[in-house]
Amino acid sequence: MTATARAAPAVDPLASRLPVTVITGFLGSGKTTLLSRLLRHPEMNRAAVIINEFGPVAIDHELIAASSEQMTLLGNGCLCCTLRTDLQETLRELFIKRRAGEVMDFDRVFVETTGLADPVPVLHTLRTDGLLGAQYRLDGVVTLVDAVNGMSQLDATPEAVKQAAVADRLVITKTDIADSDLVAHLRKRLEALNPFAACAIAVNGELDPALLASIGPRTTRAQPAELDRWVGSVESDADRALRSGRALPGANARGAHDAAIASFCLWFDRPFNWDGLNASLQALAQLRGPDLLRVKGIVHVEGERGPVVLQGAQHLFHPPVTLEGDRDNDPRSRIVFIVRNIKRESIEALFAAVGALAPAEEQ
Predict the structure, then answer these.
(1) Coil, helix or strand at residue 124
(2) Which of 26, 217, 255, 298 fits 155 for a cystine, CB–CB 3.0-4.6 Å?
(3) CA–CA dist 317, 292 (Å, integer)
């Protein structure tokens, strides 16, 4: 199968799949505390939560209404599931029980990873299992960073840097017990590391649930503003700085591990052709897969009725989904790359070498 093998026709392949949000962060960053607070919101009363059993499961006891060996029904209607085997099996079992009416009719899934976990294999799970890919879709990755220990963790561990780099949303926690200057310094560092992720502050685990809902496009009729929030519609200061070689404000906060990570957006004025786009991404995946941390974009392709949602991580890409024709305000394609030790110029050269873009119209 090629890197961007097209999705099978469906009425609305985005709306028909249950959104999965991956919540990650280093040890002690407050993932379970945030989930406990989040589940108290009425908007989240039909969520299923999967928590790795090796971490402390601290969902508030007063929320628990009924419990089995693996699944806990929370008092507000949510379902909490302990991950005892692998995520693939747990997600499959949850969906089968949902369809059979054995568990609540949940409308979203949150997956909390362990503190040292790489979130990318979770993304691969949704891509490599045919049943899961037909029933679930990745909504986004949310990474929590501890304001007290975050700077030292980013300095000492490449895992913490990768968690922040691949995020769609960054949440700084424990700000109530951290020095305000340290919080500001950490925020600048995170924004320099991953300028395409919205960054928010959680106080005592409290966060507006809207930040964690509908991160990615929910439907092929997604509004342009939704696409803008997901991938960005305006070239960022960080992108311009990377392209021009200028220093980015806050870049001096970067540590040794950050230096290997680059985040940039490539813009294309002409539409792609499917063969060229596929060849480019397939070559990238084969040649530099381990260092291709995250890719997401809205691209325009010759012959398609509308813009195409593209996303992948390392050597795997999700089947692209075509949106309705008027869903994008910008006629240009844009693809965000979060990479390790890959120069943007080399990716630009690859697209050019394989002839990924449609020929320019003759004047």
Answers:
(1) helix
(2) 255
(3) 11
Nearest Cα to 24, choosing from 132, 124, 122, 154?
122
Query: Six-digit token pair at 311?
Result: 């996303």
Give the position of tokens 């940039």. 264
Q: In whole angstroms, how far apart are CA 251 and each of 9, 211, 342?
A: 44, 26, 18
Torsional sign, CA 72, 110, 213, 126: negative
262, 347 Cβ separation under 8 angstroms: no
pLDDT confidence of residue 75? 54
Nearest to 224 by CA among 316, 307, 101: 307
Residues in contact with 89: Cβ distance below 8 Å, sequence separation at least 6, in sequence order: none
Strands 18-25 and 136-146: parallel
DSSP summary character for residue 206: B
- Tell me how many helices (H) and strands (E) the chain has: 11, 15
The 3-state DSSP class for residue 340 equals strand
What span, in angstroms and rounded, lies between the C-alpha atoms of 79 and 110?
10
**Parts of the chain belonging to CATH 3.30.1220.10:** 224-353
Lowest-confidence region among 15-19, 63-67, 340-344: 63-67
- From the options 3.40.50.2000, 3.30.43.10, 3.30.1220.10, 3.40.630.30, give the CATH code of 224-353: 3.30.1220.10
The Cα-based distances of 186 to 116, 144, 170, 327, 340 in angstroms read 20, 12, 11, 35, 21
Q: Out of 3.40.50.300, 3.90.550.10, 3.90.1150.10, 3.30.565.10, which CATH number does the structure's domain 18-212 have?
A: 3.40.50.300
Three-state DSSP class for residue 91: helix
> Exposed, middle or buried by CB within 10 Å (0-12, 13-18, 19+), for 21?
buried
Question: What is the spatial distance between Cα 280 and Cα 161, in angstroms, rounded to a whole number?
Answer: 27
Q: Which of these, 71, 115, 128, 112, lies nearest to 94 by C-alpha position?
A: 71
| H or E segment to which residue 353 belongs | helix 344-353
Q: Quick one: DSSP state of residue 102?
A: S
Tokens at residue 263, please? 């985040």
Per the rule left: phi > 0, alpha: psi between -120 and 50, beta: everything else, 204 is left
